[in-house]
Design a protein that fits this description.
The chain has 126 residues and is α+β, with helices and mostly antiparallel strands. It has a domain at 13-95. The chain has three helices and eight strands, in the order αβααβββββββ. The protein has helices spanning 13-26, 40-47, 56-61; strands at 34-38, 66-67, 70-74, 80-82, 85-86, 89-92, 104-108, 117-121. The strands form three sheets. Strands 2-3-1-6 form a four-stranded mixed β-sheet. A two-stranded antiparallel sheet has the order 4-5. β4 and β5 (85-86) form a beta hairpin. The longest helix has 14 residues, at 13-26. The N and C termini lie far apart (42 Å).
Length: 126
Amino acid sequence: MIQPPLVPTSSTAYDLLIDLGVLLDENNVPESERFVVVPAWYYGLLLKDARFTKDPNIIRTGYVGDIDGMTVYKSNNVPNTAGAKYKIIASHKSAISFADQVDSVEAFRPEKQFSDAVKRVAGIRC
């Protein structure tokens, strides 16, 4: 059954992140190095919850903090599906990768060494 999108409030934002942590537990995601990425307005809701701001350094320094063992990151790049519908991302470090195309390579001889090497030549991307 597909649930409609949940609309967080200052009293439910913290609980929704706890629920995401439970979903990670149920899917056997390792407990160390978990993270969640929220948009700035969602982080603002968390700041209104005493459970999240019990540490005075959070408000004073702007450190985002941890909830249920997940490091909370604030980003303006959280996927926005339509209007005010955002996809809050909760995951584990091992689930993220980066791939980049190698445009070209060039062979060269490093100075002061008796060896050959290859370096990536940066190309112009359009």
